[in-house]
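Q: Here's a chain of 63 amino acids. Please give me its 3D structure as tokens.
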Amino acid sequence: MYVCVCKSISDKQVKEAIEKGASTVEDLACSLGVSTQCGRCHNFANTFLQSSTQNLENTIKAA
């Protein structure tokens, strides 16, 4: 699934960036270019980021 159509950034790429330490949309913008063109993906990227971060934290706690 694409998170950012303008830059062809997939959910897999965003998840990898999160695993490498991205914690804000600004981090994703710097590392991947998310939300740097038309900006329409900003809200979705933020929601996806929060959800993925929470899932990662839950996985770590369960381990």
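Q: Can you summarize the key feature?
A: The chain has one domain: 2-62.
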